[in-house]
UniProtKB/TrEMBL annotation:
The lineage of its organism: Bacteria, Pseudomonadati, Pseudomonadota, Betaproteobacteria, Burkholderiales. This is Pimeloyl-ACP methyl ester carboxylesterase. Residues 32-284 form the AB hydrolase-1 domain. SUPFAM superfamilies: alpha/beta-Hydrolases. It comes from the Bacteria. It comes from Lampropedia hyalina DSM 16112. Signal peptide: none annotated. InterPro entries: AB_hydrolase_1 (IPR000073), AB_hydrolase_fold (IPR029058), AB_hydrolase_sf (IPR050266). GO terms for cellular component: membrane. PANTHER family: HYDROLASE, PUTATIVE (AFU_ORTHOLOGUE AFUA_2G14860)-RELATED (PTHR43798:SF33), MONOACYLGLYCEROL LIPASE (PTHR43798).
Length: 291
């Protein structure tokens, strides 16, 4: 895909593993850190529309989380919530950023949520888009837990996806509300296909450790709802009206529990908010960060 989204990047050792950090925008502008989602996501996918817009007014940073994009290899390291929060913390330190705005999608929103709760002194504001990490129970909880724990199946899934680019394309066509009319659809497909090839080449699982570790047989191990009354960082919660993965009731409860939380529902959008409705998403994020 090339480095079309950002103007520069640097490679670091964070939490004892390789992490790529991308950057764009004026060096002394207010800092924003973008945290992508799970599976085939990486920094040049979810933020292809938002990063160039924010870079006009902010210093934009974005991570490739472990086993995503250029942040490889990570061997058998367990990449869970605690490690991802540690990576965010070390990234801010190595970048010499004292305080930052966080924007996270799905898994990245869960990481941003946890980091804002545990390190409020380092966070100005947090945008939590299609947030994972909230809710006590999922549909088919036990079956999903069992499926996620079969590592050979997860690795087979990754290899299978890499060999089936047409399946990736079809999944995206169905998963984005505008289908092939989605802005930059071909670039989205290519970015996902490239990531699938990297997963297979490195013998990785289709699911992230973060996703697997979030599940227990009868409830979610990772659920920030009980902690949200302690949130000291201003938050904006975003959910697509047609998101099948993030339950509306869970987001409503999260907003209710979080002091001073703002919520925006984005119409005709599914889970991949920044890609599905980029103009509405970008407007919401920009307005919140400059409020």
């Amino acid at each position: 895909m090339g480095h079309i989204v950002y103007s520069e990047f640097s490679d670091h050792r964070l939490a004892s593993g390789p992490v790529r950090i991308y950057a764009a925008g004026a060096a002394h502008a207010p800092a924003v850190l973008l945290l992508h989602g799970a599976m085939l996501d990486w920094a040049e996918l979810s933020w292809m529309h938002l990063a160039p817009v924010l870079a006009q007014t902010h210093r934009v940073y974005a991570l490739d989380f472990p086993r995503h994009g250029a942040s490889r290899p990570w061997g058998d390291t367990l990449v869970d919530q605690a490690l991802l929060e540690r990576i965010v913390h070390e990234a801010l330190n190595v970048l010499a950023v004292g305080k930052v705005h966080l924007v996270g999608l799905s898994m990245g929103a869960g990481v941003a949520m946890g980091y804002a709760l545990h390190h409020p002194e380092r966070v100005h504001r947090a945008v939590l888009a299609a947030p994972a990490g909230i809710g006590a129970k999922r549909k088919a909880q036990l079956l999903t837990w069992a499926f996620t724990r079969i590592a050979p199946v997860q690795r087979w899934n990754a290899r299978y996806l890499a060999k089936k680019p047409e399946l990736i394309r079809d999944t995206l066509r169905k998963g984005l509300s505008q289908g092939e009319a989605t802005p930059a659809f071909e670039a989205i497909v290519l970015a996902c296909q490239q990531e699938a090839e990297r997963q297979a080449r490195h013998g990785e699982k289709a699911l992230d450790d973060w996703q697997i570790e979030a599940f227990e047989p009868f409830s979610m191990q990772l659920d920030f709802l009980p902690e949200l009354p302690d949130m000291r960082v201003p938050t904006l919660w975003l959910r697509g009206s047609d998101d099948p993965m993030v339950y509306a009731d869970d987001v409503a409860e999260a907003v209710r529990r979080t002091p001073g939380a703002q919520f925006i529902g984005i119409e005709r959008a599914r889970h991949l908010l920044p890609l599905d409705q980029p103009e509405a998403f970008n407007r919401a994020v920009q307005a919140f960060l400059v409020d």
